[in-house]
Amino acid sequence: MIDLHTHTDRSDGSTAPEDLVRQAVAEGLQALGIADHDTLAGYEAAGPAAAACGLELICAVELSTRPNECRQPGKRERSVHVLGYWLLEPPTTEFRCWLETQQASRRRRNVDLLTKLRELGVSITLEDAEVYGRNQVGRPHIARVLCDKGYVSTIQEAFDVYLADEAKAAVERDEPTLEEGIRLIQESGGMSSLAHPVRLPQRGADLFRLVQRLVEAGLQGIEVHHSEHSPADCAEYAEIARRFDLIPTGGSDFHGDNKPGIRLGHGINGNAMLPYSFLEQMWEQCTVKRH
Ligand SMILES: [Zn+2]
Ligand SMILES: [Zn+2]
Prior knowledge:
Elements: E1 2-6, H1 17-26, E2 31-34, H2 41-53, E3 56-65, E4 80-85, H3 93-119, H4 126-130, H5 139-148, H6 155-163, H7 178-187, E5 191-194, H8 204-216, E6 221-225, H9 231-243, E7 247-250, H10 276-290
Parallel strand pairs: 1-2, 2-3, 5-6, 6-7
Antiparallel strand pairs: 3-4, 4-5
Helix pairs in contact: 1-2, 5-6
Bound molecules: zinc ion (2 copies).
């Protein structure tokens, strides 16, 4: 069993990297992909613990990108996530520097977001959120504070009302375009995969057009298995993978207590359980594409 899409507390998960390794072993996983948002810190911190217990660790990252070159003023677009697997180790200086600029932009976003929340009569501080996101405060951490302080009753409500890309307190953040995200992963030696396509607004022919555009930009994979995918979604994305010669990838998108319904290595009710041979196939197809 494997899980190739997980988050630690170095981005917006709640689990420390070493604890995630221990949990993975307890779940019987043979390989674990840590795909924190815009940072390799979780992966790097998990290294020694994984080596000590013989768990295969996969160097991954998840980038937030904007789908369109041109931005419509005043309209916040939903970010599209791109996963990168098997990045060069150590990462290139360019990639590391670029990741740092993304983290700086996230910090600026947090300050703007809290200002906007205050304007809406919601008074929380960065220090409140830092209790949950010690290393990099993300929106799930802010959501937990909103719950604690009684402004909302669930994390989902915090996103729906305030934090989601189209919600009341949404603020613009500097993000690369989808094409740039794919190129950055490629230049860093990684294999790119379109994350949880179920969250895209495109369906059917529109989705085909988007995938075609991304394949031309160098996209190599698509996340077929994910906690939010129904069996019908999985079948649709597997078909897209076949049609466009993309490598199917998959994982639970585990975030610990920040997304309590998702179980590491399992997803929701076992919908993201993958055997080790899935990873071997990914690697094989990746090797073929590189030659
Ligand atoms: Zn994502
Ligand atoms: Zn994720």
